[in-house]
Design goal:
Length: 159
Protein backbone atom coordinates (compact mmCIF):
# COMPACT_ATOMS: atom_id res chain seq x y z
CA UNK A 1 0.00 0.00 0.00
CA UNK A 2 1.35 3.40 -0.99
CA UNK A 3 0.48 6.71 0.68
CA UNK A 4 1.03 9.70 -1.60
CA UNK A 5 -0.11 13.26 -2.25
CA UNK A 6 -3.50 13.61 -3.93
CA UNK A 7 -3.33 14.17 -7.68
CA UNK A 8 -6.02 15.82 -9.79
CA UNK A 9 -6.72 12.50 -11.52
CA UNK A 10 -7.62 10.91 -8.13
CA UNK A 11 -10.88 12.83 -7.65
CA UNK A 12 -13.27 10.46 -9.48
CA UNK A 13 -12.01 7.61 -7.26
CA UNK A 14 -12.22 9.78 -4.12
CA UNK A 15 -15.87 10.60 -4.90
CA UNK A 16 -16.65 6.89 -5.40
CA UNK A 17 -14.97 6.00 -2.09
CA UNK A 18 -16.95 8.74 -0.32
CA UNK A 19 -20.20 7.20 -1.61
CA UNK A 20 -19.10 3.72 -0.54
CA UNK A 21 -18.07 4.80 2.97
CA UNK A 22 -20.87 7.20 3.83
CA UNK A 23 -24.14 5.75 2.54
CA UNK A 24 -26.14 7.47 5.32
CA UNK A 25 -24.81 10.97 4.62
CA UNK A 26 -25.51 13.30 1.70
CA UNK A 27 -22.22 13.30 -0.26
CA UNK A 28 -20.12 16.42 -0.02
CA UNK A 29 -19.55 18.20 -3.29
CA UNK A 30 -16.32 17.97 -5.24
CA UNK A 31 -15.76 21.71 -4.63
CA UNK A 32 -16.00 21.25 -0.85
CA UNK A 33 -13.64 18.27 -0.80
CA UNK A 34 -11.15 19.96 -3.09
CA UNK A 35 -11.19 23.13 -0.97
CA UNK A 36 -9.78 21.11 1.94
CA UNK A 37 -7.05 19.73 -0.32
CA UNK A 38 -6.23 23.16 -1.75
CA UNK A 39 -6.06 24.65 1.77
CA UNK A 40 -3.39 22.12 2.82
CA UNK A 41 -2.24 19.74 0.07
CA UNK A 42 0.67 18.55 2.21
CA UNK A 43 -1.74 17.00 4.76
CA UNK A 44 -4.07 15.34 2.24
CA UNK A 45 -3.31 11.89 0.85
CA UNK A 46 -4.42 9.16 -1.50
CA UNK A 47 -3.89 5.51 -0.67
CA UNK A 48 -2.91 3.41 -3.63
CA UNK A 49 -2.97 -0.35 -3.94
CA UNK A 50 -1.98 -2.02 -7.21
CA UNK A 51 -1.98 1.42 -8.90
CA UNK A 52 -5.59 2.03 -7.87
CA UNK A 53 -6.82 4.66 -5.37
CA UNK A 54 -8.43 2.72 -2.52
CA UNK A 55 -8.61 5.42 0.13
CA UNK A 56 -8.04 9.06 0.93
CA UNK A 57 -7.35 11.45 3.76
CA UNK A 58 -8.34 15.12 3.91
CA UNK A 59 -6.87 17.13 6.79
CA UNK A 60 -6.12 20.82 7.21
CA UNK A 61 -5.13 23.39 9.81
CA UNK A 62 -8.04 24.76 11.85
CA UNK A 63 -9.14 26.22 15.19
CA UNK A 64 -9.62 23.84 18.13
CA UNK A 65 -13.19 23.37 19.44
CA UNK A 66 -14.67 25.04 16.35
CA UNK A 67 -14.94 22.41 13.59
CA UNK A 68 -16.00 23.53 10.13
CA UNK A 69 -19.52 22.73 9.07
CA UNK A 70 -19.94 19.58 7.04
CA UNK A 71 -20.47 21.28 3.69
CA UNK A 72 -18.14 24.24 4.37
CA UNK A 73 -15.96 25.25 1.46
CA UNK A 74 -12.64 26.53 2.79
CA UNK A 75 -10.85 29.69 1.77
CA UNK A 76 -7.29 30.40 2.82
CA UNK A 77 -6.69 29.58 6.47
CA UNK A 78 -5.00 32.42 8.33
CA UNK A 79 -5.09 31.19 11.94
CA UNK A 80 -4.90 27.65 13.27
CA UNK A 81 -3.98 25.72 16.39
CA UNK A 82 -5.04 22.15 15.52
CA UNK A 83 -4.79 19.82 12.55
CA UNK A 84 -8.40 19.06 11.67
CA UNK A 85 -8.98 15.59 10.25
CA UNK A 86 -11.91 16.03 7.93
CA UNK A 87 -11.93 12.47 6.66
CA UNK A 88 -10.09 9.19 6.31
CA UNK A 89 -12.13 6.99 3.98
CA UNK A 90 -11.07 3.51 2.91
CA UNK A 91 -12.74 1.35 0.30
CA UNK A 92 -13.36 -2.29 1.12
CA UNK A 93 -10.19 -3.08 -0.88
CA UNK A 94 -8.05 -1.22 1.70
CA UNK A 95 -9.71 -2.26 4.94
CA UNK A 96 -7.86 -4.62 7.23
CA UNK A 97 -4.50 -3.83 5.65
CA UNK A 98 -3.23 -1.23 8.13
CA UNK A 99 -4.20 1.71 5.92
CA UNK A 100 -5.86 3.69 8.71
CA UNK A 101 -2.79 3.36 10.93
CA UNK A 102 -0.52 4.36 8.02
CA UNK A 103 -2.50 7.56 7.44
CA UNK A 104 -2.86 8.43 11.12
CA UNK A 105 0.89 7.98 11.69
CA UNK A 106 1.62 10.32 8.77
CA UNK A 107 -0.85 12.90 10.12
CA UNK A 108 0.78 12.76 13.56
CA UNK A 109 4.19 13.32 11.96
CA UNK A 110 2.84 16.27 9.99
CA UNK A 111 1.18 17.79 13.07
CA UNK A 112 4.34 17.52 15.17
CA UNK A 113 6.49 18.91 12.35
CA UNK A 114 4.15 21.89 11.95
CA UNK A 115 3.99 22.38 15.74
CA UNK A 116 0.33 21.54 16.31
CA UNK A 117 -0.48 20.26 19.77
CA UNK A 118 -3.56 18.32 18.66
CA UNK A 119 -5.49 16.61 15.90
CA UNK A 120 -9.24 17.12 16.03
CA UNK A 121 -12.21 15.60 14.18
CA UNK A 122 -15.94 15.03 14.19
CA UNK A 123 -16.72 11.31 14.32
CA UNK A 124 -19.88 10.11 12.54
CA UNK A 125 -21.65 6.82 11.87
CA UNK A 126 -20.49 5.36 15.19
CA UNK A 127 -16.78 5.87 14.44
CA UNK A 128 -16.17 7.45 17.86
CA UNK A 129 -15.32 4.02 19.31
CA UNK A 130 -12.66 3.52 16.61
CA UNK A 131 -11.19 6.95 17.29
CA UNK A 132 -11.15 6.33 21.05
CA UNK A 133 -9.08 3.21 20.38
CA UNK A 134 -6.64 5.47 18.50
CA UNK A 135 -6.26 7.76 21.51
CA UNK A 136 -8.82 10.46 20.69
CA UNK A 137 -11.05 11.71 23.51
CA UNK A 138 -14.55 13.14 23.33
CA UNK A 139 -14.59 16.86 23.96
CA UNK A 140 -17.69 18.93 24.67
CA UNK A 141 -17.84 22.10 22.60
CA UNK A 142 -20.28 24.99 22.31
CA UNK A 143 -20.51 24.80 18.52
CA UNK A 144 -23.72 23.34 17.10
CA UNK A 145 -23.05 20.14 15.12
CA UNK A 146 -26.59 19.80 13.76
CA UNK A 147 -25.39 19.90 10.14
CA UNK A 148 -23.64 16.58 10.87
CA UNK A 149 -25.50 13.29 11.45
CA UNK A 150 -27.26 13.00 14.82
CA UNK A 151 -24.47 10.85 16.32
CA UNK A 152 -21.73 13.43 15.55
CA UNK A 153 -19.08 13.57 18.24
CA UNK A 154 -16.21 16.08 18.46
CA UNK A 155 -12.92 14.43 19.43
CA UNK A 156 -9.33 15.52 20.06
CA UNK A 157 -6.00 13.69 20.07
CA UNK A 158 -3.35 15.51 22.11
CA UNK A 159 0.16 15.21 20.75
Amino acid sequence: MKLRQIETSDWPSILEIQLECYPQIEPESLAVLQSKWLASPQSCFSLELNQQVVGYCLAHPWIINNPPTLEQELDSITASDTLYLHDIALSAKAQGKGAGRLVLDRLKQFAVQDKYSSISLVAVQGADSYWQQQGFTVQKIDKDLSDYPADACYMVYTL
